[in-house]
Write a structure and sequence with these properties.
Layout (H helix, E strand, L loop, with lengths): L2 H31 L3 H31 L6 H22 L6 H19 L2
Helix pairs in contact: 1-2, 1-4, 3-4
The structure holds protoporphyrin IX containing FE.
C-alpha cells in the first residue's frame, strides 16, 4: 500500500458519498418524506455535504490523473465534460428546486461518470 492507494480510496469515498447519497435520497428519503419540510432540509444538507465530497473527488482526481499520466486519455476528458454538465445542471437545480425531471438526469450522469472512472482505473 502506498500514498496513491490512499488517494484512490479518498476518490472512491467521495464518489460513494456523492453517488450513493443520490441513490439513498431517491430510494429512501423521497418516498418517505415527500412534501414534508424534513425532505427539503435533508436535500439541503446533502447538497452542502456534497460540496465537500466533490472538492475531495476533484483534488484527488487531479493528483491521480497527473501521477498516472492520464491527461491525454479520452475517457478522462469524457468524464470531465460530463462533470461540467453535472455542475451546470446542479446549479440550475439549486435555482429551480421544483424541477423534478432533473434528479434522474443528475443520477444517470453521475453513474456514467462512475463507469468512466472504473474504465480509467489502473
Ligand atoms: C463526480 C465525479 C467523479 C466520480 C464519480 C469519479 C469516479 C471514479 C471511479 C469510480 C474511479 C475508479 C477508481 C478505481 O476503481 O480505482 C475513478 C478513477 C479515476 N478518476 Fe475519478 N471520478 C470523478 C471525478 C474525477 C475528476 C474530476 C478527475 C480528474 C480531474 C478524476 C480522475 C480520475 C483518475 C485519473 C482515475 C484513475 C485512477 C487510477 O488510475 O487508478 N476523477 N474515478
Amino acid at each position: 500500500m502506498d500514498f496513491w492507494d490512499v488517494l484512490i480510496a479518498i476518490h472512491l469515498l467521495g464518489m460513494a458519498f456523492f453517488v450513493g447519497g443520490q441513490l439513498v435520497l431517491a430510494a429512501v428519503l423521497v418516498p418517505v418524506l415527500k412534501g414534508k419540510p424534513e425532505m427539503k432540509e435533508a436535500a439541503k444538507r446533502f447538497g452542502q455535504a456534497s460540496i465537500v465530497a466533490l472538492v475531495l473527488i476533484i483534488l484527488s482526481g487531479i493528483y491521480l490523473a497527473s501521477h498516472y499520466h492520464q491527461w491525454g486519455s479520452h475517457t478522462l476528458w469524457a468524464k470531465l465534460v460530463l462533470l461540467v454538465i453535472l455542475f451546470a445542471l446542479m446549479a440550475y437545480h439549486v435555482k429551480e428546486g421544483q424541477k423534478r425531471w432533473i434528479d434522474p438526469v443528475l443520477g444517470t450522469i453521475s453513474l456514467v461518470i462512475v463507469i468512466l472512472g472504473v474504465a480509467l482505473a489502473n
